[in-house]
Amino acid sequence: MVSGVLVVTGPSGVGKGTLIENLRQRVPELELSVSATTRKPRPGETHGVDYWFLPDEEFDRRVADGEFVEHAAYSGRRYGTLRSELTERVERGVPVVLEIELQGARQVRATMPEALQIFIAPPSFEALRTRLVGRGDPETLQHLDARLQTAREELAAQDEFAEVVVNDRLEDAVVRLEEIMRGAMR
């Protein structure tokens, strides 16, 4: 992890956010890169903390201006990592974690091959479906079939990653994530 950048990817509903939250409790120097998105905030989400919520026009302008290190469409919305979210931290020697989808992880792999990339997998496809339904989020339920189809495609790509962590038991998955990260930081 020469760059100090950790990329965590996997299908929607696999628990990436929860794993990263727990990892950051164990590795307090690890900072979270806040992604930009064109989707609307969910209840309790805050602009600049959970995501940078951008209108389509602003997202387009920032793409055209080269402000993203990666950006991708996912389930009808767009997401991306602003270059400024990484540059400042990397220059200070602070490790930073990106929680991004597969398309974005592939772009980061192409532009930052030294970044540590970890794929988070569910214990089974049915467990993933149950987690998505269990969220109770009307937007997730409205787009459930599309998210599940996308998840099938993403799960088929996990062999692209040197590191795969199965999120079956939260504590075990967090311990494994920390082992991988600390091993790469040596």
The arrangement of helices and strands along the chain is EHEEEHEEHEHEHHHEH
Give the biggest beta sheet.
5 strands, parallel
Q: How many beta strands in the DSSP annotation?
A: 9
The tally of helices reads 8
Low-confidence stretches: none
Intertermini distance: 8 Å
3D structure, described in words:
- With 186 residues, the protein is of the alpha/beta class.
- Helices cover 45% and strands 20% of the residues.
- The protein is built from eight helices and nine strands.
- It has a five-stranded parallel β-sheet, sandwiched between helices. Strands 4-3-6-5 form a four-stranded mixed β-sheet.
- β5 (68-74) and β6 form a beta hairpin.
- α1 packs across α8 (170-185) and α5 packs antiparallel against α7 (144-156).
- It is globular and about 40 Å long.
- The mean pLDDT is 90.
Main attributes?
single chain, 186 residues, alpha/beta, 5-stranded parallel β-sheet, 4-stranded mixed β-sheet, 9 strands, 45% helix, globular
Task: Produce a short descriptive summary.
With 186 residues, this protein is of the alpha/beta class.
Mind sketching the topology for me?
Elements lengths: L4 E5 L6 H11 L4 E2 L3 E2 L14 E2 L2 H9 L3 E7 L2 E6 H10 L3 E4 L2 H10 L4 E6 L3 H10 L3 H5 L1 H13 L6 E4 L3 H16 L1
Parallel strand pairs: 1-7, 1-8, 2-7, 3-4, 8-9
Antiparallel strand pairs: 3-6, 5-6
Helix pairs in contact: 1-8, 5-7
